[in-house]
Design brief:
7 helices; 2 strands; mainly alpha; single chain; globular
């Protein structure tokens, strides 16, 4: 635990990256796993995370990031995007994925899926979109707290 606090005291916003250095494949796997394991409501992950390595694509995205040099100088750009209009279809897909990955019968989580639908789907779209944005921030927070050496 003390390492976490030490890392928090040390952290800073990187203003300039060394464009000749690349994040290792091992570190990328670690970062992706930290995102995958982030806490979220109902265990749903109503967001997409895109790792952009291609320099040309990062250069095209730079104007949308207020021209910041970090977009092109860093070896990777990680984009978090919350899903909008999240509802029954996405919950069904999440339940299907869960039953497949855990080897459960198709109807094993039907009650849980119905429960989530009863809580999420009736919300106005603006509230659902705000909820998915908050889930996205949970994953981003997990990524920001990853200790890499």
């Amino acid at each position: 635990m003390s390492t976490f606090l030490e890392n928090q005291n040390w952290r800073y916003a990187t203003k300039k990256f060394d464009a000749t250095k690349k994040v290792s494949a091992e570190d990328l796997r670690f970062l992706k796993e930290a995102i995958r394991l982030a806490a979220s409501s109902y265990g749903l992950q109503p967001y997409k995370v895109i790792f952009i390595e291609t320099a040309d694509l990062r250069a095209k995205l730079q104007p949308a990031a207020w021209g910041q040099s970090q977009i092109v100088d860093a070896s990777h750009l990680i984009v978090f995007a919350n899903m909008t209009n999240f509802g029954d279809k996405e919950i069904d897909e999440a339940i299907q994925n869960l039953t497949t990955t855990r080897g459960l019968p198709a109807d094993a989580l039907k009650g849980y899926g119905d429960f989530m639908k009863s809580k999420i789907s009736p919300l106005p779209m603006e509230k659902r979109d705000a909820w998915t944005a908050k889930q996205t921030y949970l994953a981003l927070g997990n990524l920001l707290n990853v200790p890499l050496n």
